[in-house]
Design goal:
The protein is of the alpha+beta class and 559 residues long. The protein is elongated. The strands form 3 sheets. An 8-stranded mixed sheet has the order 5-4-3-6-2-1-7-8, covered by helices on one side. A 6-stranded mixed sheet has the order 15-14-17-16-19-18, with helices on both faces. α7 packs across α8 (373-402) and α8 packs across α12 (466-475). Mean pLDDT is 84; it is low at 95-119. It is built from 15 helices and 19 strands. The structure holds adenosine-5'-diphosphate (ADP) and magnesium ion. Residues 31, 35-36, 38-39, 77, 79-82, 90-91, 97-100, 116-122, 167 line the site of adenosine-5'-diphosphate. InterPro entries: HATPase_C_sf, Heat_shock_protein_90_CS, HSP90_C, Hsp90_fam, Hsp90_N, Ribosomal_Su5_D2-typ_SF. Its main location: cytoplasm. One of its GO terms (cellular component) is cytoplasm. This is Chaperone protein HtpG.
Amino acid sequence: MAKQQFKAESKRLLELMINSIYSQREVFLRELISNASDAMDKMYYRSLTDENLTFNQEDYYIKLIPNKEDRTLQVIDTGIGMTKDELETNLGTIAKSGSFAFKNDTELKDGRDIIGQFGVGFYAAFMVADKVTVITKSVDSDQAYQWESTGTDGYTITPADKESVGTEIIVKMKENEEEDSFDTFLDEHQLQQIIKKYSDFIRYPIKMDVTKSKPKEEESEEYVDYVEEETINSMIPIWKKNKSELTEDDYTNFYQEKRYGFDKPLKSMHINVDGTVRYNAILFIPENAPFDYYSPEFEKGLELYSNGVLIMDKCADLLPDYFSFVKGMVDSEDLSLNISREMLQHDRQLKVIAKNMTKKIKTQLQHLLRDDREKYETFYQAFGRQLKFGVYNDFGANKETLQDLLMFYSSKEKKLVTLDEYVQRMPEDQSYIYYAAGESIDRIEKLPQTEMVADKGYEILYFTEEVDEFAIKMMREYKEKEFKSVSSGDLGLEDDTKDEADEEIQEENKALFTAMKEHLGDKVKDVRASKRLKSHPVCLTAEGEISLEMEKVINAMPN
Ligand code: ADP
Ligand code: MG
């Protein structure tokens, strides 16, 4: 049979992925195992609606068979299998994830977790394989098929013999090279470790024949080897485990396995609450903002489980908007499986959980700020804007949570500082928190308006994001110190108040000012003498509440 070519974009993507997405080769096994687990979940779903199918838990398992002579690793599952068409679409085009399509047209109201979402996992096998063979029989087909590929040059699909429904993947390991040994993935002991590391909480048993030894006879000193099938994974989900048993790596693996992001988590939180509402949660603050984070396409939400069973993919009610960057999952025994239908009834429980988690996220961020400034700044670069939106949208309700998490660039420190730090070091005679808004730090530094305030030795916060000024307008004050723009008409400085001398200068130059005003017309409201200037001949100031920068933003808004 002629070789089918991978679609062109697939080919490029495949090369890209093999070399970049996965930093460690061993994750190929995690991907194959999660696909097997997904395939068995699909059988479970099917059994819910198909009277001819019954789902006996013990019929569902994954089996690994390493073979050193053939250099092959077999990954066998008893899942739903694939038809010829499905082989074509699911394994012929990368990023055309069958799991994703399945997810869209099956209501996840009573079911299990489907891990796959991105449609690239399977190809991870080519990081270690010369050749991958998939022999599969779908629950919907009497004929089994074989898919085979040696990598980027395409694949073949041919009829095959297979009795039972399910899938068998044969990974033919690459030959060892000078620096790289692929033998690891054929070694019983190493395989066990990889499974423990990445796939321990898979809910189906992952079985393997393990070589053991025992005394030849009772009391004998002589030992003999024997082989026994063992279940390698503990099948306990990570969130039900004890925190003390887990390492940072376990959380990172979970984050990546769950595809919360392709980055690493900046911070992970494991929450076990056993109060009026009981829940376990694993939450993450990602290292980077997702590419669509600040766009309307971004959907916030956490996975919601009811006693280990996934009931909602993205439960938005669990997170306030200003913490929408948090990823992760929540499992509660107190939620009904039918939450989507009976949402109202359980709303209260969910609200308690959400409120409780919000508090914990805040505390974690405060600790991060206190204990690991650098990390906090990384976080703030990625998500600070969202916190400021939170202030702007509903400061009344969010004040206590958010005001101490904000940071702005400081004229004095030349780095991000908190409002508390600013207020702490304010000289006694300073009554306001001064800020200057502009496009960039560079530009703000050149603003004539900053000179006078800076000359007094006062610190100025630089606002370079549009939301900054809007946010602090909502706050009005921090620790009883009002915010003041350096370009406002009244700076609240002693020597900036009008006196008689001012009037004199104003009078003396009246003709000049009138001429200037006439020339500028509607562009300015008034031309006046100012004591605010040092090295600059002229500056613009704003009357009233709205600063020049805000005016720009408001004018640019669509009506
Ligand atoms: P994802 O799991 O993110 O969807 P993968 O590249 O891992 O992407 O897998 C692509 C698709 O191939 C899956 O969505 C699934 O439809 C199909 N598939 C892969 N492995 C199996 C398997 N063992 N049994 C049944 N279908 C599978
Ligand atoms: Mg997958």
